[in-house]
Amino acid sequence: MRLTRWLRPWWFPIALLALFEAYLRVVVQQSDALAPPSAALRAFIGLIGDGSLLRATAFTLGSAALGLLIGTALGVAFGVWFGLSGRAARLSLVSVEMLRPVPAVALIPLAMLVFGFGLRMEIAVVAFATFWPMLLLTQGAVTQVDARLLEVSRVLGLSAWQRSVKIVLPACVARLFVALRLSVAIALVVAVTVEIAANPNGMGYAMMIAQQSLDPAQMLAWLGWIGVVGYAVNALALGLQRVVARRMGAAS
Amino acid sequence: MSLLSFDRVAIHLGGREILSPTSFEVGRGEFVCIVGPSGCGKTTLLRAASGLVTASAGEVRRHGVRVTQPSREVAFVFQDYGRALLPWRTVRGNVALALEAAGAPKAQQAARIDSVLAKVGLAAHADKFPAQLSGGMQQRVQIARCLAQQPELLMMDEPFGALDALTRQNLQDEVARLVRDEGLTVLFVTHDLEEAIYLGDRVIMLQANPAPGRPSLARMLPVGIAHPRDQLTTKEHPEFLTLRRDLYRYIEHGHHAAH
């Protein structure tokens, strides 16, 4: 009973894959653009075997994670500052609103000039892309912290640092996790985009190579794998959020 | 010298006069209750006394020094305990916040927390979160946090206003006992006349809508009933009844005068 319930959400995608497989094998038969899922799976096993899967995944995830770390740390720090200080928020408003709409991928040429190809330019672009949502969502969350808690921190004589770390950040941790999960997704998208557009490393570049060498099976293998990685990263963030919520006294 | 003095303190908020110039002194170890109808500025007066609000005119002085911002020497018990406690910290963690703010060494914290929790009868609940406690117990946590601060002055803003009658009586007696044991000086805001007389050494009565010839400070009455007091006998004490009648009459009179 439990097994069938657990399997239920998988029937539809499995049926879809089977349909796709049959369509390619029976109707199309030969294609340079598409390959049946079974061929993609074989290509995927090949990628595991020659180590390129691990290498490219590590590069993309590593640069996405480092970029996210920088973007999040700066975004949260500035967000707390702007959220607590009305003056800082007013003074920063114009700069934020002018810089924020710049698409992160439009920075790729500049980042390439400054950092060259490789890890650093990809980290920079990811950090830029994740900084803005973290900044705005943190700032919004901080302004929503109950004024009473800020008064408690004044009456107890907490320092500005203690107030931020012991009162403000814990008070908006639920909203910060929403921002973080959003930024995790952005980080992965931007990292792969940078690799497709410019950086000769990682999963995005590997997929481009497969496409250019007219190997649709391998290209689809990468595509599927990127989807799996994205799902796993999001699940990880969700799990982390649950653990933190439980430790902070949420009803389990 | 008195511990706390109000020197012609007036407070305007949003262009409206909340408190007309008010002067009084509070001596060390005194329990002063402030009563009055809602909107008479009693909470604002308390916030000015603790430095959360700055007086528009006149000054509040503690030990002769002008009060401009909150101090660790002055603890504040808020009415809405649900909003004043950190929901993500246990009872112990909430009390620890006061010690962390004061920079107390980690090694001493546990013993001090245990001691204040024992004083307010929460020793068995140290590791629970506020949401797992009743309203009365949550208010005890806030009182414990204030005691951990080791203040000389305790400000209480309608601390028992949201509690049921029985819990309220228990807490009144406990606070009276704690205050005497710790030698605290208290400013206690309430809208309940009986509570004010029962707890106070002095009752200050405020009236709403101050105007020329109608100052905020309407009455100031000493309460001469000996401590410790008792919920039954004190409330049948002739002086208690006289004071209560006096204050009630005044409220009615003030009410008619306002019309």
What does this structure look like?
The complex is a heterodimer of chains A (about 250) and B (about 260). Chain A has about 250 residues and is an all-alpha fold. Chain A has a single domain (about 45-245), classed as MetI-like (MetI-like fold, Orthogonal Bundle). Chain A is about 85% helix and about 0% strand. Chain A has helices at about 1-30, 35-50, 50-85, 85-100, 110-115, 120-145, 145-155, 160-170, 175-195, 200-210, 215-245. The longest helix of chain A is centred in the N-terminal third of the chain and has 33 residues, at about 50-85. Chain A is globular and about 75 Å long. The relative contact order of chain A is 0.13. The model of chain A has no long low-confidence stretch (mean pLDDT about 90). With about 260 residues, chain B is of the alpha/beta class. Chain B has two domains: about 1-75 and about 155-259, P-loop containing nucleotide triphosphate hydrolases (Rossmann fold); about 80-150, no CATH class. In chain B, about 40% of the residues lie in helices and about 25% in strands. Chain B has a six-stranded mixed beta sheet with strand order 6-7-8-3-9-10, with helices on both faces. In chain B, strands 2-1-4-5 form a four-stranded antiparallel beta sheet, covered by helices on one side. Chain B is globular, with a radius of gyration of 18 Å. At the A-B interface, helix 7 and helix 8 of A face strand 6 and helix 3 of B.
Question: What does the average pLDDT of chain A come to?
Answer: 91
Q: What's the helix-strand series of chain B?
A: EEEHEEEHHHHEHEHEEHH
Specify the CATH homologous superfamily of chain A.
MetI-like
Q: Mean pLDDT score of chain B, rounded?
A: 91
CATH superfamily of the largest domain in chain B: P-loop containing nucleotide triphosphate hydrolases
Q: How many distinct helices of chain A? A: 11
Q: Output the CATH topology of the largest domain in chain B.
A: Rossmann fold
CATH topology title of chain A: MetI-like fold
Integer-rounded radius of gyration of chain A:
23 Å
CATH architecture title of chain A: Orthogonal Bundle
Strand content of chain A: under 5%
Low-confidence stretches of chain B: none
CATH class of chain A: Mainly Alpha
Number of domains of chain B: 2
Structural class of chain B: alpha/beta
Biggest interface pair, counts: A-B, 21 and 27 residues
Oligomer: heterodimer
CATH class of the largest domain in chain B reads Alpha Beta
What is the number of helices of chain B? 9
